[in-house]
Amino acid sequence: MTARNASISITISEDALSATISDWSIAEGGSSHITSAELSDALRQAGVITPPLVGVLTQINAALNKNEDPRGIVVARGTPPEPAKNASLKPAGDLRLPVFPSDVVGTIIPARNAVPGKGVNGTVIKAPGDQQGQDVGFAEDSYCYIDTNALQIRASRYGIISVKKNRIHMRPLLHISPDLMVVTGSVFAKDFKGKDITPERISEALKAEDITQPLEVNVFMAALTSASKTGTEVPNVPLCRGVHPQSGKDGWFELYIQDDRSSVGVEAADGSIDFRARGMLKAVSNNTKLGKLHAPKKGKPGKDVFGRVLPSHDGAVFRLQLGENVEALEGSEFASTIEGMVIFKGNHLSVTEVFQTRGDLNMSVGNIELERGSAHIRGAVLSGFRVSAPRHVRVDDIIENAEITCGGDVEVNGGIVMDQTGFIKAKGNISATFAKGAKLESQADIIIAHELSNCTVFARNNVEVIKGRGRIMGSTIQAGGNILANELGSDLGVPTTIILGLETESQSPERAARRKELKALITRIDTGLGGQDPRALLERTPPEKRPAVASILKTRIAAQQELAQIEQQIEQEKEAAKKLPQPKLKVFKTIHPGTTIKSGHLSLQVTETTAYSQIYYNAEAGEIVIASL
């Protein structure tokens, strides 16, 4: 679109935002100036409707007067379009530091929509990009609100503000634990405006969260000191806590009778721990106060950090179950009605003359040592354990390599299986279905139903093995009464020894040991002093040594007198034993070779199979006699 007049030509730019002189000429004989009308005519010819720029005519004429080229002079301009502009936040401080509730975070600079332009030829020019500016938005986690009158943004929580993609966010600096019992927070020395952060300001921030529990000032101040020194955030500081509810104390039974037994073991003499030992189970007398039942206590409610009450649980009532031989007294106390052992397990209180296990005697029970009463093992006595009772012991199953001592009977429903490491000692009877490898000692009778093999047996009265096969084999049996069996020894010739009657020293092992000790003492003194007459010995002894020698001589004389008394007792018992009925061995079926029968100082070897026999010591003949039943 180029138009020519007598003086200049004007061209419109491609974007239509400017019109410039593109050519010029001076008419022959004419003036070197152009008039306003000529400029307007040139603009019209070029299609420009926008008025010429102010002063442009003067600029053109000045160039022409100087004979300069006026091409390129802009004679008219259009209006360029204005692009849309998003709203923005003008911060009121350093947003890297925390804001507090109600703080003005910043001011909003409003958004602006796009404005179209206008070309010099009147064409409309559209602005590039979006035609509308985007307002500042609030993310779900912004915790801010807008003051619409002043276009200011205010915080509603204590946190760090950030703007991402024209949306306001906040990183909260207070965190509540899932159980609502602890508030942790990040501590800074300064806020976003450079003001000091104080306990009072943090307390207000907590209240803005509806937290009613007080700030733990000491904890906060320690964190604040650290933040001041380092100039950095101190995270995860426990700022306040709720109060946990306290459950009430359950009712309980106070047992006056202290069970001093150990639950894990007892130290032995050598310093080692016997893990099977528990100590003695003591007994109480009649009308002994056993304990008191205590009522439960109520609980104390708590509070979470919001001040809401957390209910507590009151203590439960202890349901004491009274067993046998226990009576209730005033004041919630209880007493025994007999002399016996106190058993308190779970919630069951009783006094019994018989201590019972629920099953085997094992590590969960430990050794049993009773001060009074009897023991009932409702299972087996396992290897390595001990039972001691003043009265009876009953075992429902078997006894392994254990040690049993009692002042009454030992009754074993099963058998006794040992390897000579355990033993049973009873002042009463010992009875069992069978016994193998056992050491049995009874001050009464020993009754084994079916078989007694490889055992060492002592009975002050009778030994009976007559049920079923009724066999005694490979054992040493001594009895003060009769020994009864169906079969003695075996067809393989297994050595079996029967001792009829009680030797005097066997009746008192303690006396035998004392006799041996006295003889050894006298021998040592005689060896040292030479067996000389005491008076002559003292006369030859230097005066300074006579007191020591005299003391030794007195010891010898006392030992000789005590030994003489023991020897006299032994002789008297031997003479008395001769007048007693002689014990007999009665075998109702077979005595096998390899069997030895002893009585006194006599011994009889069985070399041939003998049936239906009785064997005894004949005092008049002075021999052991074998006779038919």
User: How many β strands by DSSP?
Assistant: 52
Cα shape: rod-shaped
User: Strand count, sense and closure of the main sheet?
Assistant: 13 strands, mixed
Mean pLDDT: 87
Low-pLDDT parts are: 1-6
Strand content of the residues, in percent?
Answer: 25-35%
Walkthrough of the structure:
This protein is an alpha/beta fold and 629 residues long. Helix content is 18%, strand content 35%. The chain has eight helices and 52 strands. A hairpin with a 5-residue loop joins strand 14 and strand 15 (182-187). It is rod-shaped. Mean pLDDT is 87; it is low at 1-6.
What layout of secondary structure does this protein have?
Elements: E1 3-4, E2 8-12, E3 18-24, H1 36-46, H2 56-65, E4 74-77, E5 88-91, E6 104-109, E7 117-118, E8 124-125, E9 137-138, E10 144-147, E11 152-155, E12 159-164, E13 167-172, E14 174-176, E15 182-187, H3 199-208, H4 217-230, E16 234-241, E17 252-255, E18 266-267, E19 273-274, E20 280-281, E21 283-284, E22 289-294, E23 302-303, E24 309-310, E25 321-322, E26 326-328, E27 333-336, E28 340-345, E29 348-352, E30 354-356, E31 368-370, E32 374-377, E33 386-389, E34 393-395, E35 403-406, E36 410-412, E37 416-417, E38 423-426, E39 430-436, E40 439-442, E41 446-453, E42 456-459, E43 463-465, E44 471-473, E45 476-479, E46 483-488, E47 496-500, H5 504-507, H6 509-529, H7 534-540, H8 546-579, E48 584-591, E49 595-599, E50 602-605, E51 610-618, E52 623-628
Parallel strand pairs: 9-13, 20-31, 25-29, 30-32, 31-33, 32-34, 33-35, 34-36, 35-38, 36-39, 37-39, 38-40, 39-41, 40-42, 41-43, 41-44, 42-45, 43-46, 44-46, 45-47, 46-48, 47-49
Antiparallel strand pairs: 1-2, 2-3, 3-4, 5-6, 6-11, 7-8, 10-11, 12-13, 14-15, 15-16, 17-22, 18-19, 21-28, 22-27, 23-24, 26-27, 28-29, 48-51, 49-50, 51-52
